[in-house]
Design a protein that fits this description.
Low-confidence stretches: none
Order of helices and strands: EHEHEHEHHEHEHHEEHEEEHEHEHHEEH
Radius of gyration: 21 Å
Helix content: 40-55%
Mean pLDDT: 96
Number of helices: 14
Structural class: alpha/beta
Strand content: 15-25%
């Protein structure tokens, strides 16, 4: 199983918290679509023996592309790759782009999964984050989307300054009332060089509090599990048969090609990343060059990636796999490093699988970093 990720580096406006690569100028959009198509063709040999089971449009805001542009890029994948019979084809979209007409048109396209960036149903939250949509648009687009799409995911952000526990519960309930089968939810994070960071530094917005975010996370987990969702990855919850195949492939170490500026690729042995600059990306592609840097992953790199992704998922970290793929030295190191977290009931071992406990889930990333192997000679 392999996947193709297509990065659409354009947004109508910049959300205050976002540090992904994008431009708010659409001036080079037509050029970019042609360049993305060209990269898709040029890199087909990388997947000569692979079957593509997922195509994912991320960004940026992929829904700023027209349906014709989206269909064109999908057709280029089909022309140049072996594609599974029923691939998961996801479009990330913002509510302000999802009019009734647009949703209906998308339902007639190869897109069969929508990932909608709701973030919050409260006006004050949307304004604080500088989202391009309002609460009414968020609800309206979901009302329309569920008429035509079965497989829908929505994003919610917690830990927002001023968002009380009761307001957060209401956000979750509102999402559940639409019958959405998948929810991705993230803590509001202050990234360097973002507008949010500057607003906090100047005292215009209060800084997010870890305790508030932790409470919101526990409310989220408890509420969604009561409503039949499986907490299959730290930030992702899905009903049975509605896990994101694209994201699951990433967490399980499957191969993928990243198309577009800033997109990452992985083939099991090396990782690559395209240049995060629209103009330089376009220039390279137009000159028949791939603007990509690559690194060969050392055994320690691969071990660390497995620890990070494994602990975040319901599949956990297989101690048998650690021994078979990385050797006894790594297994013994993992056992030694994890002991304090086992003693504190933050990790558990069951059926030779290492996983966070409910108490440890919110701390997963920090725990994983303590289990990384940093000093081995490869």
């Amino acid at each position: 199983m392999s996947g193709i990720y297509i990065h659409i580096p354009f947004c109508k406006q910049a959300c205050h918290y976002c540090d992904f690569h994008f431009s708010t100028s659409m001036r080079k959009k037509d050029e970019m679509v042609l360049a993305l198509a060209k990269e898709i063709v040029v890199r087909k040999n990388e997947f000569e023996n692979e079957t593509v089971e997922t195509i994912y449009f991320g960004g940026g805001t992929p829904s700023v592309l027209s349906n014709d542009e989206i269909n064109f890029l999908i057709s280029e994948v089909y022309k140049n790759y072996k594609v599974a019979e029923n691939p998961e084809i996801t479009l990330e979209a913002n509510p302000d782009d999802l009019s009734s007409e647009r949703i209906f048109e998308l339902s007639k396209s190869p897109i069969n999964r929508l990932s909608i960036g709701i973030q919050s149903f409260y006006e004050e939250d949307l304004k604080l984050m500088n989202r391009a949509h309002n609460s009414a648009e968020a609800k309206k687009c979901l009302e329309e989307a569920i008429k035509y799409f079965d497989n829908i995911s929505l994003d919610l952000i917690y830990g927002i300054p001023g968002l009380s526990d009761e307001m957060w519960k209401k956000n979750i309930e509102t999402a559940l009332n639409f019958g959405i089968p998948h929810i991705s939810s993230y803590a509001l994070t202050v990234e360097p060089k973002t507008a949010l960071s500057k607003l906090i530094q100047t005292g215009k917005i209060a800084a997010p509090q870890d305790e508030v975010a932790s409470n919101h996370f526990m409310i989220l987990v408890e509420t969604l599990q009561k409503n039949g969702f499986i907490h299959y990855e730290l930030s992702n919850f899905g009903k049975e048969n509605y896990f994101s195949k694209n994201n699951s492939a990433y967490w399980l170490g499957k191969k993928y090609i990243g198309i577009g500026p800033s997109a990452h690729s992985y083939d099991g042995e090396k990782r690559g990343w395209n240049i995060a600059n629209n103009s330089l990306y376009l220039k390279a592609i137009q000159n028949d060059e791939l603007p990509i840097e690559t690194e060969i992953l050392t055994i320690s790199d691969r071990y660390n990636e497995y620890i990070m992704t494994g602990l975040r998922t319901i599949w956990g970290v297989s101690l048998e796999k650690i021994e078979n793929e990385f050797g006894l030295e790594y297994l013994n190191y993992l056992k030694k490093q994890s002991q304090k977290f086992l003693n504190d009931d933050l990790l558990s071992i069951e059926n030779n699988i290492l996983k966070p406990t409910p108490k440890g889930k919110f701390l997963t990333d920090g725990i994983a970093s303590d289990l990384f192997y940093l000093n081995l000679e490869d």
